[in-house]
């Protein structure tokens, strides 16, 4: 589920609860105590910093990182797709540069040239299309790409069904239909490569389940990054089993309760920014030398997701089971990639996907957490570029653009 799932849902609930007051937790039952125990681990992680660095200095550092970091600044040609419930979905496309060495399209006897391969990137829970910043920068001009924001995330509109009188919960199946709407609007013809991280990977599986003919007819390759085909209810996020089970039982209700007091919760998230940042870093990255600007970039994306949106999406993950849908991808090149220290969708879930797709390339990235595409962009981009070369989306000899490194200088 992305840089999130129980890990970030707990982070948001814990930081909000810190200032929400005892009345909120009385209404939430035992959840306050359970989440508080989990949050204590991250609180300890920032305790030394609080002893040596003032709150004002820390705030100024965050503002400086916000101002100087280039991450998430890439923009393309904007467009909108309309989901089946009327939700407006925002996407951007980056077109092929014919001078960049990509395969040229030709006109044959006056006929229209075939459409190029389009690579469609789907992001995870509590993120946005900008989560693919490094890969987008590296591939820009070499291949046509489409980046979109899932409903209620980024620049897309709040889910119409979730705001309607029936308050329909979000489902992974709905996200699959949303992806179909984006494809219809942004890439109505030509071959496709689908790339999904966490919830984005689950979205691709839902597309395959509901639109198998589209996948068979047009999809020529797929990449699943840090995702799962099911059994997310068994993930323990690096925490004691008993504590996680207690939180899992009460967290949906807690999130709903907090979502009804969204304004108070959002104030709480800002007031406890250090704790929130510590929790996000724990569940997003594994490396000790991640660039602080990258860590802050991830934090900004996650904290921009309103608490009521977190609540609307969270229940869908325990219900997610799309292992059977993977059969549609058996006959095509597949990349399955995960971080070896992912606490949200552990690498064992990627191994399970690869077991169902014996011809898939399985890559486990060392010292990598859930946001592997930000933490180790070179590893993800290189393997993705290889997949694109294999399916003919770009020449094997093409040099991907600069994608930088998240390592701090001198380490």
CATH superfamily annotation of the largest domain: Alpha/Beta hydrolase fold, catalytic domain
Portion in beta strands: 5-15%
- The structure class reads alpha/beta
Average pLDDT rating = 80
Helix tally equals 18
What's the total count of β strands? 8
Oligomer: single chain
CATH topology of the largest domain: Rossmann fold
Can you give the helix content as a percent range?
Answer: 40-55%
Task: Describe the protein in words.
By secondary structure, this protein is α/β, with parallel strands linked by helices. It has 2 domains: 6-70 and 239-316, no CATH class; 77-104 and 115-232 and 321-390, 3-Layer(aba) Sandwich (Rossmann fold). It has 18 helices and 8 strands. The protein has helices at residues 6-20, 22-27, 31-52, 55-68, 133-139, 160-163, 172-186, 199-210, 212-218, 241-259, 262-271, 273-284, 292-303, 307-313, 315-319, 347-356, 372-375, 377-390; strands at residues 77-82, 88-94, 118-122, 144-148, 192-197, 219-225, 334-339, 361-365. An 8-stranded mixed sheet has the order 1-2-4-3-5-6-7-8, sandwiched between helices. The radius of gyration is 21 Å and the shape is globular.
